[in-house]
């Protein structure tokens, strides 16, 4: 290893089980759901709910689902594409930079990767959570954990974070390019399906407690009004892609998937939207999932299998998915520009 100080870049993805087995999925779900930024309820209640109800109920079924998307050679799709992104960015930036990948939950852990970076006596470190839209439960959790670990270091390099990039022009170009692999005129309607959040988390970003969001969120948020509202950023991403592809206003819907429990989550729910579109006689849907930069269980199974089957049962015919950013060189260029624009 060279003794020359490097500029560090840390890409952080959500995480994935180490294997599609019940025991490994149980470990992953427990670590994920016990994060107080993810399950933002009192500790005792979170312990009882996660360890006593959710994980025992979901681990086996989730393991079966992971097994359907697991590749015998490359393993987890999320890990496969995340590692490709890290390697491609390292190659693009060159030897002056040290690019590492960590997972917020499971392996490679933030602790182990930051330990490695600490030993390199970095001049600077830029952390890029791989979530285009900011949420306390995703990017916020990554930043929180990084600061918790780094505060124990005996030296501090220049430290910076990219907290969001919801309307990054190159990212939008990649989603548009991937969409154009499909015949857009073939589809009756377009869905922009984002990972959901409990509605209560939208207002928590306001330290003065003056922000009053509607019970189920709204569709009129502007990124410029509330820069750190997850809902606002989802609409900003959607508008940018819609503008790039010239999709008419009446031909697309923004919706939210993966809700958990009985508390209100951001609406409209993707499942409800599918019901509505089927009732309107829509037959062919093309779905974007711009909350994910790599294909994963939410895109490969939840949308392409679960929701596709649900739509067909209601009288629809086809649900096709726009692939994630994955290993598109333009996405790697977007990451490179983030690094250079943030002073690293």
Architecture blueprint of SSEs:
Layout: E1 7-15, H1 22-33, H2 43-69, H3 77-93, E2 97-105, H4 110-118, E3 124-129, H5 136-150, E4 158-161, H6 169-179, E5 189-195, H7 200-203, H8 230-245, E6 252-257, H9 270-279, E7 284-288, H10 297-313, E8 318-321, H11 329-341
Helix and strand content put the structural class at alpha/beta
Count of domain modules = 2
> Biggest sheet: strands side by side, in what order?
2-1-3-4
User: What is the mean pLDDT?
Assistant: 92
The overall strand count is: 8
What name does CATH use for the topology of the largest domain?
Rossmann fold
Give a quick precis of the structure.
By secondary structure, the protein is α/β, with parallel strands linked by helices.
Description of the molecule:
It is a single chain. This protein has helices at 22-33, 43-69, 77-93, 110-118, 136-150, 169-179, 200-203, 230-245, 270-279, 297-313, 329-341, and strands at residues 7-15, 97-105, 124-129, 158-161, 189-195, 252-257, 284-288, 318-321. By secondary structure, it is of the alpha/beta class. The chain folds into 2 domains: 7-165 and 329-341, Rossmann fold (3-Layer(aba) Sandwich), CATH 3.40.50; 169-321, 3-Layer(aba) Sandwich (Rossmann fold). The strands form 2 sheets. A 4-stranded parallel beta sheet has the order 2-1-3-4, with helices on both faces. β7 (284-288), α10 (297-313) and β8 (318-321) form a beta-alpha-beta unit. The longest helix has 27 residues, at 43-69.
């Amino acid at each position: 290893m060279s003794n020359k100080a490097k500029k560090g870049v840390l890409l952080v993805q959500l995480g994935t089980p180490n294997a599609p087995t019940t025991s490994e999925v149980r470990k992953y779900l427990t670590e994920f759901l016990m994060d107080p930024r993810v399950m933002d309820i009192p500790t005792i209640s979170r312990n009882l709910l996660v360890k006593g109800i959710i994980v025992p109920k979901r681990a086996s079924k989730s393991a079966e689902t992971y097994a359907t998307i697991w590749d015998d050679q490359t393993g987890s799709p999320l890990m496969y594409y995340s590692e490709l992104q890290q390697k491609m960015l390292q190659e693009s930036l060159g030897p002056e930079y040290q690019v590492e990948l960590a997972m917020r939950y499971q392996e490679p852990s933030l602790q182990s990767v930051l330990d490695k970076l600490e030993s390199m006596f970095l001049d600077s470190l830029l952390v890029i959570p791989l979530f285009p839209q900011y949420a306390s439960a995703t990017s916020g959790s990554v930043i929180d954990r990084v600061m918790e670990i780094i505060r124990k270091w005996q030296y501090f390099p220049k430290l910076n974070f990219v907290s969001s990039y919801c309307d990054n022009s190159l990212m939008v170009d990649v989603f548009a390019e991937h969409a154009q692999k499909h015949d857009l005129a073939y589809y009756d309607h377009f869905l922009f399906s984002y990972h959901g959040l409990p509605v209560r988390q939208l207002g928590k970003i306001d330290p003065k407690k003056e922000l009053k969001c509607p019970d189920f969120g709204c569709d009129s948020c502007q990124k410029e009004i509330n820069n750190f509202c997850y809902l606002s950023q989802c609409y900003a991403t959607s508008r940018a892609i819609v503008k790039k592809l010239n999709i008419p206003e009446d031909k697309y819907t923004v919706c939210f998937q993966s809700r958990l429990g009985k508390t209100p989550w951001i609406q409209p729910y993707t499942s409800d939207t599918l019901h509505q579109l089927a009732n309107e006689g829509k037959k062919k849907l093309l779905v974007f999932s711009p909350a994910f930069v790599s294909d994963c269980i939410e895109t490969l199974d939840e949308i392409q299998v679960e929701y596709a089957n649900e739509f067909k049962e209601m009288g629809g015919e086809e649900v096709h998915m726009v692939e994630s950013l994955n290993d598109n060189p333009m996405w790697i260029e977007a990451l490179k520009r983030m690094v250079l624009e943030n002073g690293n």
